[in-house]
Design goal:
With 465 residues, the chain is an alpha+beta fold. The protein is built from ten helices and 13 strands. A hairpin with a 5-residue loop joins β4 (126-129) and β5 (135-146). α8 (357-374) packs antiparallel against α10.
Length: 465
C-alpha cells in the first residue's frame, strides 16, 4: 500500500528533528566533554613534566662537581625519559646551547617559530599545543643546572596514533537514531490511519451515505476532530432531510391555490365564451385571493429559509414590548370583535428591553393571529407580559382542546398541523416565530393549561453580548 503524503511528512519531520538533535548532542559532547578532557590532559602533561624536571635537578645536584654534559646518570635519565614519554627531551644551557638530548640530530626547527595561539599558561610553565604539526604538545621549564645557572628543560611530545573515542559515541548516536526512526513508522501510521478514517468517512457522506459516522477513538485533538465531524454530519443530515421535507411540503402547499386558480380560470373562460358576464368579478376575486395566498406563502417560506441559513442579521434597539403588543392587539381588534372573543390583557415590564422590533412584531403577530384563528367563537383569549429576573415573560392563552404530547413538541415545526386543527393555513407562522425567539437567545414552548392552549415565551431583557 502506497504511503500517504501526510504519513511521509510526519515521518520525515521526525527524522529531521532527530537528525538535528543528534548533531547538537554530538557537538555539545565535543565542546564540553572534549574541552574537559583536553584540560585534564594538559594538567597531567604539566604534572609529568614538573616531576621529570625535579628528578633531573636531583640528578644534577647529586654530582655537583660534574658538568651536566659529562653526567652519565643524567644522560641515562634523559634517554629513558624520552623512551618512556615517547618524546624528544633535551636540556639547554643558559645561552640556549643544547647540553644533552634523548635523540640524535638537530633540535626541531618548528620550535623556534612556535605559535602563541595555542598556549596554555599554568604559571610556572606553558604548554604549547601542536596543531597541524608532527608533534602533540611541547613544554619548556626553567631548570637549575649548576650553582647560579638556570637552563631550560624541553619535552616535545610526539603525536601518537589517536583512538578517536568520539567515533564510538557518534556510531552509538547513529544506532539510536535508526532505532527511533524505525519506531516512528508505527507512530506515524497510527496518526495517519485515524486521519485517513476521517477522509474515508467524509467521502462516504459526500457520496450520499448521510447516516455514516466516524468511529471516535481517544480524547486527543484527532478524537475531538472526529466528534466535531460527527456533530457536523448530524446537522448536515438534519438539514438535508429538512430540505427534502420542506420541498415536499412546499410542493403540497403550492398545489392547492394553483389548482383553485386553474379551476377559476377555466370556469371564467367557459362563462365568457357563453356570453355570461354576470359573475366574472367573483371568479376574478377568487383568483386574486389565491394569488395573495401564494404571495404570502412564498414570503413566509423565504423568511423561514433566511433564518434557517442564518442570513438574517437582527438589529437590536431599545423598545417597549408592551406598546408593541398593544399595537398588534389593536390591529387584530376587528377579527377579535367579529369572533366575539373575550380578550384579557395584563401587560407590564421593567425597562430596559432590547430586541429587533420588526422581527419581534412578526413573531408576536403570528402567535396572536393563530390564537384568534383557532379560538372558537365567544372563546377566551388572554395575553400577559411581565419581567422576572432579567427575563421578559410573555404568555398567550386561548380556548382550545388539549393537544397530544406529539402535537405540543412538533407545533413549531414548518408545515406541521395538529389533527385538531380545522382551519386552513401553511403551518409556517409558529416556525418563523420560533426562529425569531431563538435568534433573541430566548425560548418558546406550548403547554396545555386549564384555560386551553398556552404559548410561553422567555426573552432576555438585555442586549446581546
Amino acid at each position: 500500500m502506497k504511503p500517504g503524503k501526510l504519513y511521509i511528512k510526519i515521518f520525515l519531520s521526525f527524522v529531521l528533528i532527530l537528525f538535528i538533535t543528534e548533531i547538537l548532542v554530538f557537538g555539545l559532547f565535543l565542546f564540553s566533554v572534549g574541552r574537559h578532557f583536553r584540560s585534564r590532559i594538559d594538567q597531567y602533561t604539566g604534572a609529568k613534566s614538573l616531576v621529570a624536571k625535579e628528578l633531573l635537578e636531583e640528578k644534577i645536584r647529586s654530582r655537583p662537581e660534574t658538568q651536566p654534559a659529562d653526567n652519565d646518570p643524567l644522560k641515562d635519565y634523559i634517554l629513558r625519559l624520552g623512551e618512556t614519554y615517547r618524546a624528544k627531551v633535551w636540556l639547554d644551557a643558559p645561552d640556549g646551547t643544547p647540553i644533552l638530548k634523548s635523540f640524535s640530530g638537530d633540535i626541531p626547527h618548528e620550535i623556534t617559530g612556535i605559535s602563541k595561539r595555542h598556549v596554555m599558561d599554568f604559571g610556572s610553565y606553558k604548554i604549547h599545543r601542536g596543531h597541524k604539526t608532527d608533534w602533540e604538545s611541547y613544554i619548556s621549564l626553567p631548570a637549575e643546572i649548576g650553582k647560579g645557572e638556570i637552563g631550560t628543560f624541553h619535552i616535545l611530545f610526539e603525536k601518537r596514533e589517536r583512538t578517536h573515542p568520539e567515533k564510538g559515541f557518534a556510531f552509538g548516536l547513529a544506532a539510536i537514531a535508526i532505532v527511533i526512526a524505525l519506531l516512528t513508522i508505527p507512530v506515524s501510521r497510527m496518526i495517519t490511519k485515524r486521519v485517513k478514517g476521517l477522509t474515508e468517512s467524509s467521502l462516504r457522506i459526500a457520496e450520499g451515505d448521510l447516516s455514516h459516522r466516524v468511529t471516535v477513538m481517544g480524547k486527543d485533538e484527532i478524537g475531538e476532530l472526529g466528534r466535531s465531524f460527527n456533530r457536523m454530519a448530524d446537522k448536515l443530515e438534519r438539514m438535508i432531510q429538512g430540505g427534502r421535507e420542506l420541498t415536499a411540503n412546499i410542493s403540497h402547499e403550492l398545489r392547492s391555490p394553483l389548482a383553485r386558480i386553474r379551476i377559476a380560470e377555466e370556469l371564467l373562460r367557459e362563462r365568457l365564451a357563453r356570453g355570461h358576464y354576470d359573475d366574472y368579478e367573483r371568479h376574478l376575486d377568487d383568483i386574486r385571493e389565491d394569488i395573495e395566498e401564494l404571495d404570502g406563502l412564498i414570503g413566509r417560506i423565504l423568511l423561514l429559509s433566511k433564518m434557517d441559513i442564518q442570513e438574517t442579521h437582527l438589529t437590536f434597539e431599545r423598545l417597549d414590548p408592551s406598546d408593541l403588543m398593544t399595537e398588534l392587539l389593536e390591529r387584530l381588534k376587528p377579527a377579535i370583535n367579529r369572533r366575539k372573543l373575550h380578550l384579557k390583557t395584563e401587560l407590564s415590564f421593567d425597562p430596559p428591553f432590547f430586541g429587533d422590533k420588526e422581527a419581534l412584531r412578526t413573531a408576536l403577530l403570528n402567535i396572536l393571529e393563530n390564537a384568534v384563528k383557532f379560538t372558537p367563537e365567544e372563546g377566551d383569549f388572554t395575553v400577559t407580559m411581565h419581567s422576572e429576573q432579567n427575563l421578559l415573560k410573555i404568555s398567550v392563552t386561548n380556548t382550545f382542546e388539549a393537544l397530544s404530547e406529539e402535537d405540543l413538541s412538533n407545533i413549531f415545526e414548518p408545515f406541521y398541523r395538529s389533527e385538531q386543527s380545522r382551519v386552513s393555513g401553511s403551518g409556517l407562522g409558529l416556525a418563523i416565530t420560533k426562529r425569531v425567539i431563538e435568534k433573541h437567545s430566548g425560548n418558546i414552548k406550548a403547554v396545555n393549561s386549564t384555560e386551553g392552549l398556552e404559548i410561553r415565551i422567555d426573552l432576555p431583557a438585555g442586549p446581546p453580548e
